[in-house]
Design brief:
Number of strands: 6
Structural class: alpha/beta
Strand order of the largest sheet: 2-3-1-4-5-6
Radius of gyration: 16 Å
Number of helices: 8
Shape: globular
Largest sheet: 6 strands, mixed
Strand content: 15-25%
Distance between the termini: 30 Å
Length: 198
Amino acid sequence: MLNILLAGVGGQGTVLAAKLLAQAAEAKGWQVRTAETIGMAQRGGNVVSHVRMGDEGEPVYAPLIARGTADLIVAFEPAEAARVLGYLKPGGTMVCASTAIQPVSAALSSTPYVASEVLQNLAGEIEQAGGAFFAVDDASLVEKAGGRKSLNVMLLACALAEGGLAVTVDDLRRAIPACVKERFVDMNLRAIDLSIAR
């Protein structure tokens, strides 16, 4: 069983990233289940997508990942990564964007949170548990891509390249045409190439 958790805030494309992973798994003939837990997503609230794959041919009965069992977490924002850290299994992998999106509570206070401190703490905790942590300089990827529209696909490509999973970047490429509108296919395929070349 392969468990992948995606965490971000509303508008970052977390749900589409889960759909791409599910499509990639189905194309391999695996059973797959997905679920989203969505707060005030349309207003910048947190979004968590669960993707469970029967990568060894086993059936998948339930869509939600239990705490401490995620093989991979892809976090689109550092504070959201911290929020879901408890889902990562010992020895698991986390790939996290390095740019902070200040929540309303931090924006209203005089001391907004600092992403570098959150990333440093995450790296320490994950490495202490025998896992791997990769902070992705998403600002430079977005600059090369010309916008944040495909950040979700870029982070997913980074995660699949680093994660050592049975789902590959090529599987992601093949899933793009089935999940995104035709006019966005080339943009997303270029985003994958940019991520791999980083």
